[in-house]
């Protein structure tokens, strides 16, 4: 009971009232993995609602593709998912080849499989390191970037560039392997396999990491399908779907892939899926090296390439999910319409649903588990 100071009469205390607060997280924030703004409505420490605001990195890649010759557009794909440029190039080249009704030589297909799986490893390594950095652990990012450095060095020797490699071409690839490159690649894979054992010992089973991720950001299988999620986001919720198996393309028709699936559906499950995929990609790289056929690395394709009138959609299993390229051709040297189906953009839409009801401290853990790249979200 409270007492009125003027009358001295006891009075009932007023109820505590809470007021919702709007909090901007980003667009300049290290844990938004790019220039993303989250406008969150908080009630105390609990997230009531969240509105992602995108477009800060928009560069009009799709419009640029429509204003470049078909053969010149592939270079711009490196700027979409800039952590998986090789995979983006494979998607673009595959779409044009499907539109033209051509198929690259078998050796080129195996080269694409090899560099694509190496790119998947590099992308997952960046994710693991930065995700643990978001959660307060510093050592993993040093280890993962050290290993990624080996892949970038191999890419530099192969295509002349480390980051935006620009190695794929319609009808094949730019160069064959330099002398000794495959031996260096095998030696790197041997070392990476040992390093992954150490990384597992550092992270998996860590009680702080498990407390921050287990049971957090749960997605049930039906919800994952309803939101159009793909990649580790979908497979982490128990849905066995991988384009390399369900709609195999290029050399994946000959090389079987063991799809990595977890049933838990939380942030920890998505972590385990990506770690398992690194191990699986190492195996696929070794298979590609062992089965690498001889022959041509590219087929003759006219520089002024004119695709026949019509439309096409070609999708691959990128490091983040289904990466699709949609073209409409009017028969000219330029695509009449170009559209990129970026998995980062599609996967991001479930974020408000995942955050509701969670504490503010869980926001970084949930958002980081999606593995978005803003270059692919905004395009």
Task: Give a verbal description of the structure.
44% of the residues lie in helices and 13% in strands. By secondary structure, the protein is of the alpha+beta class. It has one domain (21-378): Cytochrome-c3 Hydrogenase, chain B. The strands form 4 sheets. The chain has a 3-stranded antiparallel sheet. It has a 3-stranded antiparallel sheet with strand order 8-9-10. A hairpin with a 6-residue loop joins β1 and β2. α10 packs parallel to α13. The model has no long low-confidence stretch (mean pLDDT 91).
Task: State the name of the first-level CATH class.
Answer: Mainly Alpha
Main beta sheet: 3 strands, antiparallel
Q: How far is the first residue's CA from the last residue's CA?
A: 61 Å
What would the principal axes of the Cα set say about the shape?
A: globular
CATH level-four homologous superfamily name: Cytochrome-c3 Hydrogenase, chain B
Helix content: 40-55%
Q: How much β-strand is present in the residues?
A: 5-15%
Give the spatial strand order of the biggest sheet: 3-4-5
Q: Figure out the total of helices.
A: 14
Structural class category:
alpha+beta
How many structural domains does the protein architecture include?
1
Which parts are unreliable, with pLDDT below 50 for 5 consecutive residues or more? none
Number of strands: 10
- Arithmetic mean of pLDDT: 91
Name of the CATH architecture: Orthogonal Bundle
Using the coordinates shown, work out and report the CATH topology. Cytochrome-c3 Hydrogenase, chain B
Layout of strands and helices, then pairs:
Layout: E1 2-3, E2 10-11, E3 21-25, E4 37-43, E5 46-53, H1 61-66, H2 85-100, H3 106-134, H4 139-159, E6 168-169, E7 172-173, H5 181-203, H6 207-213, H7 221-226, H8 232-235, H9 243-246, H10 267-290, E8 310-317, E9 322-329, E10 337-341, H11 343-348, H12 351-355, H13 360-370, H14 374-378
Antiparallel strand pairs: 1-2, 3-4, 4-5, 6-7, 8-9, 9-10
Helix pairs in contact: 2-3, 3-4, 3-10, 3-13, 4-5, 5-10, 10-13
